[in-house]
Amino acid sequence: MINGAQLGEKAYRISQLSKRYMMEIILVILVLLLIVTAPGFFTLGNILNIFRNVAITGVISFAMTMVIIGGEIDLSVGSSIALSAVITSTVTGKLAEAGVMPMESAVWIGMLVAIIVGMGIGLFNGFVRTKFNIPSFIATLAMLNVLYGIAAIISKGFPVTTLPSWYNWIGAGRFFNLIPVPALWLIIAFIFVYVIMNKTKLGREIYAVGGNPEAARLSGINVKFVKIIILMIVQMFAAFSGIILSAQVMSGSSTFGRGYEMDVIAAVIIGGASLSGGIGKAWGTFIGIVFMGVINNGMTLFGVGDFEKYVVRGLLILGAVMLNTIQLQSLQKVKQK
Amino acid sequence: MSILRASNITKRFPGTVALDDVSISFQSGKVNALVGKNGSGKSTLVKVINGAYNEFDGNLYLDDVEFRYQQPKQAFDAGIATVYQEMSLIPGLSVAENILLGRYRMKGKFIDWKETFQDAQDILDDMGVTLPVKEIVAHLSVWQCQVIEIAKAMSVNPKVLILDEPTSALAQHETEMLYELIRRLVKKDVIVIYISHRLQELWEIADTCSVLRDGKYVGTLDMPEATHADLLSLMFGDLTLKKRPVDVVAQEQVVFKVDKLTREPAFRDISFELRKGEVLGIAGMLGAGRTELLRAIFGADIPDSGTIHIDGEEVKNPSPVLMKHKGVAFIPEDRKQQGLVQILSIKDNLNHSSLDLISNGIFIDNKKEAEFSKRQIKDLDIKIPGEEYPMTSLSGGNQQKVVVGKWLNIGPKIVIFDEPSRGIDVNAKQQIFQIIWDLSRHGLSSIVVSSELEELLEICNRILIIKDGQFTDEVNPDELSVNELYALCMGGN
Description:
The complex is a heterodimer.
Chain A: H1 4-20, H2 22-37, H3 44-69, H4 77-97, H5 103-131, H6 136-155, H7 168-172, E1 174-175, E2 179-180, H8 181-199, H9 201-211, H10 213-218, H11 223-249, H12 260-270, H13 282-301, H14 306-336
Antiparallel strand pairs in A: 1-2
Helix pairs in contact in A: 2-13, 3-8, 3-9, 3-11, 3-12, 3-13, 4-5, 4-6, 4-11, 5-6, 5-11, 8-9, 9-11, 12-13, 12-14
Chain B: E1 3-13, E2 16-27, E3 31-35, H1 42-49, E4 57-62, E5 65-67, H2 72-77, E6 80-83, H3 95-99, E7 106-107, E8 110-111, H4 113-127, H5 142-154, E9 160-164, H6 172-186, E10 191-195, H7 202-205, E11 208-213, E12 216-222, H8 228-236, E13 254-263, E14 267-275, E15 279-283, H9 290-297, E16 305-310, E17 313-314, H10 320-325, E18 328-331, H11 335-339, H12 346-351, H13 366-379, H14 396-408, E19 414-418, H15 426-441, E20 445-449, H16 453-459, E21 462-467, E22 470-475, H17 482-490
Parallel strand pairs in B: 3-10, 3-11, 6-9, 9-10, 15-20, 15-21, 18-19, 19-20
Antiparallel strand pairs in B: 1-2, 1-4, 4-5, 7-8, 11-12, 13-14, 13-16, 16-17, 21-22
Helix pairs in contact in B: 8-17
């Protein structure tokens, strides 16, 4: 027999569980709604498309999760996408033009240079943040403009299309003619960040630094090093995203990535990370990414116009963040009792 | 002349009686000091008077008229103004705006700035101080901010002015200026109640001194006639000290040596040696430079000059990371802000200093991580609801043990304790002392700072006295009383 107290306990547990998995529940409800109402939503092709479409911002979202948990932010990732795409295609073109090597192999050098430049930008951001104590919000906002400018200067404002045809596979290829290659990059980014945050010393340090930088410092954790590393990793991922995007459209342009930083950050926040640092999970960000992808996809299927999409997406992000905030506050209240 | 009288005040909190039948009175025209150890009930009494607490037994009278305010705002408007040690100014606003906040002169719907600035100027003139009323507060010194706080209180023409530790953030010459200001205010028939931990300054500024001990009123002294001994015996009564166990003794070997360490303006020319197994106390009054010294020793702040040697080897460019690797642990005074990451779990916090030891440099060894946290929870008898719970679920004493445990996990050689017993209950205190003694038995050395000087007499093998940033004396705790130790820290007569 179940008595009242046990029943109460059970109801309490269910309410706690539903709070903890609120975003997952909302996502499932959203998907069920779309399955019923949107023709063509629940097909293998469409589901795989969703993953392909979110890959470019999603890859960065995972790295951004580390940055936000660490109490920092990087607003310059949108223009890093453009810069990386421009660098890859330009370096490839120049090497081939100079006759050093054919485009097919030169593109490897192009990608390598783009990734190294990305890490350099992250190092610079981290340096400005830790040496001069300038908030990363401001430093990277300034960087957002600088990097667009550099990308435009290098490309002289035109798309650079000097890329070998095999390169297209990175952004538009499919395994077994089915699974989009970018989905693989997304999964790799997820595993990378999941392992760092849950299995490594660096992960523990990131949580500590974001949760209370002074306590972390006085625990003998190298706070500056941790901040520089996370800002480098997110730039490295942004550079890789630029490679995926340039491979998808087979060119590099300074117009790439405009406003992507907002989608990147929105997914992280929807996933439950706290902008004040110390709280967040790779899995949560995964949910956030899929949530954004499903909404965009649903609106496309319903034929919602591009302008209207902005409004709907913005409001949904706002709603999701409000839910998360309420949930976080109620969880904290329970824990304090 | 007016009199503030508290009659038979009793204030209970769950589990304790903070004020026990306190009857006390304060006169205008005098600086009435109110003193007592931490937890003696001073701040509770202030909060009863200024309306922050409205549920208590007993009565309050101002010139024989009974009063009891429901909120600090009501009391403030009625002329009972309190200046707290934490500044409550808005840095982006001007001096005048801060003084008259929310009570500006209006011309219709708009603020009459000319009149508002004039009002502020009048208040400052009346106090006899010069301050630019249009200046932004962020550009002013701490002392000037303190003056604005007082001016804000004076703007309501208070009958009672309560100053809570007004000198704690001031430099010496600023303190002198504050005293002059207070003396001028006293002449205006204001009842000044002056709360301070810096006992030595009472002889300079106070006319009378009322003492609370364990929530009871124990007496009032006339300051000009009182001696240090009179005041201390009122504050502490006949305190019998517990003795540390006999096997807590220092060995010969010097493990840690500080030579001519200086960090202006906090401290200068600090030199001392620490022996293996020794429990070394550093005693001093608030603001003597104790915390600043400990932070510099641990590398949290960079000293101007001087050297630190560990096991005979000089430590160059000390930083918390380096000191940790040299086996130095640091338990900071403010465990919430500096010692713990409150939103993370107990297990995480217990491992924050020992991440190098539970990992191979990159990956965490989950088994070791669990062992490390379990070991401290067991050894230090930390009472927890579960390892995965956040720090906020623990009491002060258990939180403090987590900070200690986090550091014991690195296997330290030297442990620095800054106020290890602050804000924790008597039992937890004794447990922390036991831990310090156990460390000594295992050959670990400790440096302990505490505001409760009687604690140092109980815990330490040797005590160094710090005053105004310099060591002035070295004493053997077995050879002197609490009162003598306080007198040494205060200096003077």
